[in-house]
Amino acid sequence: xxxxxxxxxFLAIARHGNLSAAARALHVTQTTMGRRLDALHARAGARLLxxxxxxxxxxxxxxxxxxxxxxxxxEALAVERxxxxxxxxxxxxxxxxxxxxxxxRILVPLLQPLLTRHPALSIELITDTRALSLxxxxxxxxxxxxxxxxxxxxVRRVGDMGFALYASEGxxxxxxxxxxxxxxxxxxxxxxxxxxxLLPEAKYLARxxxxxxxxxxxxxxxxxxEAASTxxxxxxxxxxxxxxxxxxxxLPAPGPTPVRxxxxxxxRDTRHVERLRLVVDSIADGLRRLAPVLNPAGVPVxxxxx
Length: 306
Description:
Low-confidence stretches: 299-306
Order of helices and strands: HHHEEHEHEEEHEHEHEHEEHH
Shape: globular
Distance between the termini: 68 Å
Number of domains: 2
């Protein structure tokens, strides 16, 4: 009989295309992943995955069994979630996925009181731009700045994140205030990479300053913050991140600047797990308290206060 761990490894390698990424997904070593694949091929009497210079690809035999193994995975995960749903203990690990800067600056401080009250509780914080799957138990909770597309997910809007335009005092002294009515000619801007160009803040800046040059593209909020602080250009940043930075000035903009919802989701089968419920409530309460910081509703920050 085929071993389920070997079949899970087959699925992970098929999805990720290489041993290292598949091993990270299953929280095992790359050596273990390779050993499981070899064992699966030996037991099955056929190769299901073929190694190529570009990574592992399905063989015809692998393609034929892939859907059946995915069904097995779905059933196994349903059993795990059903068992987890009966767990009323406030102990154990809760895996949360969100984006890097929000996780570090907002989420970690919010979790501190909860972890102090419940020392048997442990948090694994996975900061990743990818949308990890709650159904496949890649995470227990997900906090995102966009609506969830995954089925069987319970979703709550737990806050709003406001964005504004920022430049350093040094940059403004050297270049003056941008004239957005004519597309901000003579100015530089800091924006997101091309694969993130459809995000509301990137689209807003592209419409507002079509005649400015792009000085830097990056997928890192912290890199954008540092670039704006070092006078590289104008950036569209979350207010909670940029308002406290000395030397940065929030610029007036024509019309409202983007506001993105903060969404928290968990799989419906685990919504009654006590430790997950406590973490969800703690995060939601904390974000509610931080609403004036996360979305200051366009209230200007006086320059003399910086």
